[in-house]
Predict the 3D structure of the following.
Amino acid sequence: MQRPETISGKTAGFTLIEMMCVLIIISLMTAVVILSLPRQKQVVELQSAFMAEQFEVASQNAIISGKAQAFGPWEDGYAFYEFINNEWTVLSDNEWPEDLGIKFYQDDLEVDLPDEDPVPVVVFEPMGLSTPFSLWLEGDEQTVVFIGKGDGKVSMETQL
């Protein structure tokens, strides 16, 4: 059996302090990597990005097609409509995510959302006008407010 090499009478190897220094360096590098990873988007961010796109599409489609478009929220979801043959036709309907609080205002008054059977409450006219409203999407750490001033455009504001 062969003995380990010695340096000035001591067995060759790593000291406890050297091992701890290496572990600290590895921990710091791991922390840098984890903190630089993109964070998971909140429910409010995902829903608001989708809603912003849908409002823009409704506004533009009304102008391009010459047919009124509309938005109608209810307690569990919302729908977008098109006015075809003298009646509102549902183009798409979606459910709100579970962790999302919804408030809808018209004329600065909160509107009680129906339990079901939504109706169009925000109309985007072919001439570029729309019904004034505000829609609040509230999550754990963030609130997004959609504001329609009646000019056919919907702006989005984020509040922390």
